[in-house]
Amino acid sequence: MRVNVLLFTQTMNALLSSSLQLQDALAVCCEILSGRRDKKFCMKILKEVNEGRRLGEALAEFGGMLPPLYVPLVSIGEESGMLAQVFVKLSGYIKDRKNVRGKLIQALSYPVLVLVTAAAVVFILVLFVMPRLEQIFMAFTESSGEIGMQMARMRAHVYTACVIISALAVSGIVCAAIYAASDRAARALDGAALRIPGLGKIITAMQMHDFSFAMKLLSCARFPLVESLAYASAAVSNRRLKEAVLSVRDDVADGRDAGDAFASETVFPQYLSVWVKIAGRNGNTAEAFSELCDYYSAESEAILSGAAAVAEPVFILIAGAVIIAVISQFIIPVFTLLGAL
To answer: Sign of torsion, CA 124 126 132 133?
Structure first.
């Protein structure tokens, strides 16, 4: 079931901000939403809340269609009594994610379309055009053996490319299966992703934004630091970073300074450790994590915008390389054979 998460969040934000109780807000939301799937989703949530379940628990059943940060933050809002404020923040968060995703799709749609078209042309040449050309050439020339060898070389190039693409696809499927089946392998893969140049920076910035966002809400609600770290770890989807957050929580529970605990975990950026140390000196944890949230929000948007700007010419170059390969491996040899007739 696919629902409009942004519309549901904005509606709940408006209703909860008008001082309605949760059950009343969900009931009104069910009446306001016009989409069949949206209404069904809202009615399911309302039914479970009326049966005594917490909102976060009810939403967890639909976790696959919600952003990773959604359910943990709703649970945090319920624990802290700041559910209305959480929906305010979630509305802005989802809207920003949608805008960034739209920019990426807009930047990549044209070059990807060109790349797919070039690949389709290659497959059409191999499956339909080349066999007929081979029959024609062999029917009109005595040097059929040489023509057959040239056509076989052309097919071999395509088959090699197909094998490489298939191997990459199978590798991706195997990695995804291992990631889902083994927590240890998932931590290793997440840790490896953080070390990939460019990709690691994007993942870290987005994860630190979600983490600092959760910590800001918890700090504003006066949660103890150890308890806040435990709750905020649920907002971190990268398992290597989640492991590091829980390690910091254990160190702080043992009496270690939070800034030193963060600094000892190499997966955390230095900027985060510095602001946590500042919070430890002035005692204003909420202000520190508010600054961190704003910083990583801006950094995430800047990184993704830059990646989209770089990805477009890269995909165009790849598409151009595919077209050149098609010309050199198919078009030119075909004209050469035609000239030999």
So the answer is: positive
Angle, CA 339 vertex, CA 333 and CA 341 arms, to 5°: 110
Distance CA 109, CA 111 (A): 6
- Taking the C-alpha atoms of residue 282 and residue 294, their distance in angstroms, rounded to an integer, is 19
Are 264 and 238 a contacting pair, CB within 8 Å? no
Query: What is the DSSP track for 17-73?
Result: HTT--HHHHHHHHHHH--SHHHHHHHHHHHHHHHTT--HHHHHHTTGGGS-TTHHHH
Arithmetic mean of pLDDT, 223-247: 87
User: Which three-class secondary structure state does DSSP give residue 327?
Assistant: helix
Give 313-322 pLDDT, tens digit per residue: 777 777 777 7
Structural Rg of the chain based on CA atoms: 27
pLDDT score, position 80: 76
pTM: 0.69
Q: What are the CA-CA distances from residue 238 to residues 142, 203, 245 (Å)? A: 64, 8, 11
Distance CA 186, CA 203 (A): 15
pLDDT at position 1: 54
Q: Phi and psi at residue 63, in whole multiples of 5°?
A: -60, -30
CA nearest to 243, candidates 214, 207, 275: 207
Whole-number Å distance between alpha carbons of 155 and 149: 10
List alpha helices for the chain, DSSP H.
Answer: 5-17, 22-32, 36-50, 55-60, 70-80, 83-124, 130-140, 144-181, 183-195, 199-220, 225-232, 239-253, 258-264, 270-282, 285-326, 332-340
Q: Is 206 helix (H, G, I), strand (E, B) or coil?
A: helix
Q: Closest by alpha carbon to 244, among 221, 220, 224, 262?
A: 262
CB atoms within 10 A of CB 156: 11
